Amino acid sequence: MKKTLADFDRYINQALQDWHIPGAAVAVIKGDEILHQGGYGFRDIEKRLPITENTRFPIASMTKAFTVMGVALLVDEGLLDWDQPIRDLMPDFRLADDYAT
Question: Measured between alpha carbons, how far is 94 from 101 in angstroms, rounded to an integer?
Answer without folding.
Answer: 5
